[in-house]
């Protein structure tokens, strides 16, 4: 499952990713998330793209009250948890090995009276998409899910199938990431809506369909 090998001699800059837990104050809540790089690799740590997307949502840039939201590649669940705390009905998804950690973080951080607005579900991009009906969601969220080139076709198929507005938060590291954005623009109307220069994180908004008008 681990896409990045675990290394006991981690660089100091990455040491926070190897901690067993991490904490944030977002959406007027203290959020404490378990991490498990050793077992699950990149799927089980909080990356800057997730933090920036949460801050973007917290700032009120998107009306989440009562919206049906699905998060792809949720990992620790930070983005989906924050979206739920801000009033959305959220389905947070990842591959099967990540679901135990994801579910535990939801139980730990979502108040009991809001647990009903949260669903943890298995979703491997491009597979069994019939379980997620097109039009079932108002918004798709993804934080740092644009990094593994072989997953790009399946990710694009999943976004097209879900047929909802998309917010992608990512760091553009390589030419392959630019190629993904080019492919995305062939399918959606895409614009950059925010850039965090300190963390070098972009947030892109993709419309439900391509058109000559801006979103």
From TrEMBL:
GO terms for cellular component: cytosol; protein-containing complex. One of its GO terms (biological process) is methylation. It comes from the Eukaryota. The chain crosses the membrane at residues 40-57, 69-88. Keywords: Cytoplasm, Membrane, Methyltransferase, S-adenosyl-L-methionine, Transferase, Transmembrane, Transmembrane helix. GO terms for molecular function: methyltransferase activity. Pfam families: Methyltransf_16. It catalyses: L-lysyl-[protein] + 3 S-adenosyl-L-methionine = N(6),N(6),N(6)-trimethyl-L-lysyl-[protein] + 3 S-adenosyl-L-homocysteine + 3 H(+). SUPFAM superfamilies: S-adenosyl-L-methionine-dependent methyltransferases. Gene3D superfamilies: Vaccinia Virus protein VP39 (3.40.50.150). It is found in: Cytoplasm. Belongs to the methyltransferase superfamily. METTL21 family. This is Protein N-lysine methyltransferase METTL21A.
